Structures are given as C-alpha cells and as structure tokens.
Amino acid sequence: MPIRLIVGLGNPGAEYEQTRHNAGFWLVDNLANSLPNARLQREAGFNAMVAKTIIGGNQLWLLEPQTYMNRSGQSVGAIARFYKIQPDEVLVVHDELDLPPGAAKLKKGGSSGGHNGLKDITSALGTQDYWRLRIGIGHPRTLNLNQPVADFVLHRPRREEQLLIEEAIEKALRIIPTAVAGDFAKATMELHTP
C-alpha cells in the first residue's frame, strides 16, 4: 500500500521553529524543498500548510498542521476524510524522546509513547495503525540535562545535537521514495542499517 499523506509534526510560529518538537516540520520542509513541484501553502480548510506532489510516480500530499501539537489530529483527520486516505496510507514524521539524536526509525502502529501529537492523530483516525517516522531528539535524562520533558522539547537542541538530528533527517529523506512506494521492508532495512 503506497503512502498518500506525509505529515510533519510541530508547533506553528517563529518562537517554536527551532525547537526539538518541530523535527517533523524540519523533515517535511526539506522534502518539499527537494521536490520541483512541492510548495507548501496555507490551506484554511485543513488548518495546515499543504502541498500536492509526486514521488516516484505516486501522487501524495505533504501536510504540516498549523494547530498546536496536541491538536494535530484536526488537520490530519480533515485531509484524510476529504481525500479518502486510509490510516495505513499515512506516514507521520515526529520527534522521538526514546531515540538519541542522530537516530531515525520507521514503524507502523503502537502507542503514542506520551507524544500528544500522536495521541490526537490516533483519536482523529480512530486507530494507531498508521506509519511513523521517528526522528531521535534524545531524552533530557540520557543527555544529562536536569530539565522537564515538556520544557526540553520546546527548546532548541544544543549545536552537537542539532547536527546529529540533521544527519538523521538526511538519512530519513533518502528512504522516503521507497516508503512512499509501499516497500516498507526495504525502507526499514535501509534506515535502520548504520
């Protein structure tokens, strides 16, 4: 089953642009910029930045909800209903506390792991059975930071972490055409192999 919708998660507004929680936006921005025909534009009906594009002959939508993170499901649910996109045709790109900076992992389904954006998308789609591309940002404890998680995700990564996150995004972008084509076994193997 090919992917018809790639969702990047983040918070709108300049004050959040460089924060760890916006890793999903970073990937989708990079993806849109790499495609000749993908310009993200405000779409009021979906309360999101949206682009229609083609990757490897497959037509799909790129989406960045312009709600706050915990209401991401509003935009995802609206576009999925409008274009009759099934949950297993959705790939959500998000920051992941349980992976170190520099890591990126692909998986289908599973719990939200406390991620409010995923919780809201699961509620909007009525299932956890959609694809996730998890961009590691690390956890304040494993990075030896005495900082609450909510505060950590809403701050900029340190320079060395930022470089690792950017490397993970670059690696993840390389498997997007394979994932969009529906070959998740190959995409997962490529992404998870150092």
TrEMBL record:
Site positions per UniProt: Discriminates between blocked and unblocked aminoacyl-tRNA: N11
GO cellular component: cytoplasm
Single biological process term from Gene Ontology: protein quality control for misfolded or incompletely synthesized proteins
UniProt KW keywords: Cytoplasm, Hydrolase, RNA-binding, tRNA-binding
Residue numbers annotated as active site: H21 (proton acceptor)
InterPro entries: Pept_tRNA_hydro (IPR001328), Pept_tRNA_hydro_CS (IPR018171), Pept_tRNA_hydro_sf (IPR036416)
Main location: cytoplasm
One example GO MF annotation: tRNA binding
Coiled-coil segments: none
Annotated tRNA binding sites: Y16, Y68, N70, N116
SUBUNIT field: Monomer.
Its biological purpose: Catalyzes the release of premature peptidyl moieties from peptidyl-tRNA molecules trapped in stalled 50S ribosomal subunits, and thus maintains levels of free tRNAs and 50S ribosomes.
Protein name (database record): Peptidyl-tRNA hydrolase
Classification lineage: Bacteria, Pseudomonadati, Pseudomonadota, Betaproteobacteria, Burkholderiales
